[in-house]
Write the structure tokens for this entry.
Amino acid sequence: MAANLCYFFHFTKKMSTFVAKMTLLLSYLPITDPTFIFFVVLLIILFAPIVMSKLRIPHIIGMVLAGIAIGQYGFNILVRDNSFELFGRVGLYYIMFLAGLEMDMEGVKKHSRRFLLFGLLTCLIPLILTYIMSIALLGYSPAASFLLGCIMASNTLIAYPIIGRYGLQRHPSVALSVGSSMISLFLALVMLAAFSGSFSKDSNWLFWVLFVLKFVAFCVGSVILIPKLTRYFLRRYSDAVMQYIFVMAIMFLSAALSSLIGIEGVFGAFFSGLILNRYIPRVSPLMNRIEFIGNALFIPYFLIGVGMLINLGTLFSSIQVVWIVLLIVFFGTFGKAVAAYVSSLLFRLSKADGNMMFGLTSAHAAGAIAMVMVGIRLEVAPGQYLVGDDMLNGVIMMILFTCIISTMMTEHASKQIIIQEKSHLQADAPKDDDEKILLCVKYPEIAPHLLYLSMFMRNQRLNRDLVALNVVYDDQNSNSAREEGLRLLEQLQQTASASEVKVQTQVRLASNIANGIKHAFREFACSEIIMGMHVHTDINPRFWGEFIQSLYNGLNRQIILMRFVQPMTTLRRIRVAVPSRAEFEPGFLRWLERLSRLAGQLDCRIQFHGRNESLELIKQYINNRHASVRAEYTYMAHWNELPQLAAEIADDHLFVVVTARKGTISYKTALERLPDELQQHFSGKNLMIIFPDQYGGHKDERMSFTEAQHHEENSIYDTVLRWIHERKVKK
């Protein structure tokens, strides 16, 4: 009893101390000091993308959610001071300016009729449906209904990066979607400009005549003067800072002039982006600077400021508010769906094309936020603004929902189109003119084996040099590690010279091993990577190694991982596990060619396990290209048969797994269990893992707030699924 009382008093004392400390901490909130406000915002900009990548949520939503959390309607951490007004305005203009810069004007000109028709449909149908819904079901005023309709008329191509992964950039449905998005956004902003001008106190027939004249004068003057100024400046001044400042000055001048004549500044920023489009190439250093500074500071600052204005408490304050949000979300999606599928019928396109058009045009993001922020500033009565909390919350929820729908539908449609059309399959031989193997070595005991593997797989006819790379951590031990790397590479050169194979070598310092390999890969213009795979003693999420996962997620080219248990020359059979639909991957013929060469050099049998569709194409290729290779073909109905296959793998066999990156046509959820199965059933076996080529050339390393970024860490969803699977295994 005495012990219990003692414990109780001790616990009470600790809790009172904790409460006192928390009370003291809360007394400093909200933070009002500008320096600390800026520091907290920078922390959010730094860590929010990491958290959002785990949740697979676009960063544009992540920043808004962060703003909600720190604002007065959340945990009240920060005061929304003047910096949010200044940086927010800059970020708003930045978003629309980038939207104009990134438009493909030449593509629109070439297919203007179809683009115009689909653009009008995807703009007017959502606008009309939303306008009618807002008046009939929500009881909004005509002005508020029209603004909401303009928001629904626009869209943001957040799912476009998915298209790059599947190599469908030139597909007709994709081209139509991109062109129509440009037209719908332009029309929505023009209507918004006229709409905001109507709130002038002197809004009569004379006002509208003057408004049209000023609008035309602004557009014509901008089209004539801005190109002349740009050509003059860019020809005479090459300084990077001066060029950037000039572009920013043009953007803000255009925004200021449009505001001066009664048009919202967002239109001026967007229009200046359209004009400067041809003078700032998409892959130029100037474009990189513009995007980097905007995405690193101004745009996230603006998005956080938007979040601080949102009061989620009103979201579930009544059934009426929930009803408003549901209607906005529904019509924000339904209108785009009607436009996409009607257009696909008019153009006599397939259902998959219709799905693609809907997927790409259904997402609302940057344009919607920009326009709703305009509505927040439009005063309909003293102290009463056009956009209330219910509409603001509804638009934010609509953005989140449509971003999710857009990415899911686009990925589904991409797979449908590839399977139907088989657009990337080629009956002829693979083009190996780009072949140049990058050999990544670290450990002296396996480096010679990797060299032999590279020599067996290389094209003897081309007689290209191999590139041997040793990446060293840039730390206090870098000098000694560099010397060891040089000695290792010299040994490899001597070994290769005996076979009259030339090897280029490089020891590279890097703070990140994966980045060092990727940079070397691009510097040497390599086609593929061969590297060793370390041996884990237990099952864990880091089966691929501390940097390999980051490497294959950041590089779209073929990567071969090898684990040696015995010398390659002693192998009698190669067993290859082929996933279903592997033939639809662009790297299908490349890895098949490499394995065929290896089997020919080792003079051993090669046995393929997979679906009949894949096996038939493999058989056809080997018979045509490598008739001397002794190949066998075994039907494998499902990837779950790997454990059964393990019992047939002998010590002198090489087990090859052709896997796939997430988001590719042959990827399946069963591949998430691959590390577990390999460790459980293939421990102590000769093992090769192949990540084939995928579309896209190289990953875009620029930060984007409209795409969920992927880091080397597993997502939260992956972690939960792994935990559930482990629990099932234990039971």
